[in-house]
Amino acid sequence: MKKAQWLTLISILLVLIIAILAIINVDKVEVNFIFTTVQWPLILVIIGSALLGALLVICVSFMRAIKEKNTRKQAEKAEKKERLAQATTRTEINKLKQADKK
């Protein structure tokens, strides 16, 4: 199986587990915030916590992808500079610049 298929299967299983737990736990519970306390059904607390966790994972993954993309771009720029520095003739320099435009 491919990685994407495994991730989809695991995601579906986690959603099913969370749904089953949420349906079983319908009692009201106290949720303590910094300035107030509220009573919500446990189903909302479970689903809300799962959604916040998923959002956090998505944000961290997105930030990691941006960081890797920036690192890759910097490495490519450094490599281009190195190739230009090693080029000895005007013809080689022009060929490298034309290749970069493509």
SSE topology:
Layout: H1 3-24, E1 28-32, E2 37-41, H2 42-86, H3 90-101
Antiparallel strand pairs: 1-2
What form results from the Cα inertia axes? elongated
User: What structural category characterises the helix and strand content?
Assistant: mainly alpha
Separation of termini? 37 Å
Tally of helical segments: 3
**Low-confidence regions:** none
Proportion of residues in helical segments: over 70%
H-E order = HEEHH
Major sheet description: 2 strands, antiparallel
> How do the strands of the widest beta sheet line up side by side?
1-2
Radius of gyration: 26 Å
- Name the average pLDDT: 84
Question: Which terms would index this structure?
Answer:
102 residues, 10% strand, elongated
Describe the protein's architecture and organization.
This protein is mostly helical and 102 residues long. The chain has three helices and two strands; from the N terminus they run H-E-E-H-H. The protein has helices spanning 3-24, 42-86, 90-101, and strands at 28-32, 37-41. Strands 1-2 form a two-stranded antiparallel ribbon.
Entry summary:
The protein has 102 residues and is mainly α. It has helices at residues 3-24, 42-86, 90-101; strands spanning 28-32, 37-41. The model has no long low-confidence stretch (mean pLDDT 84).
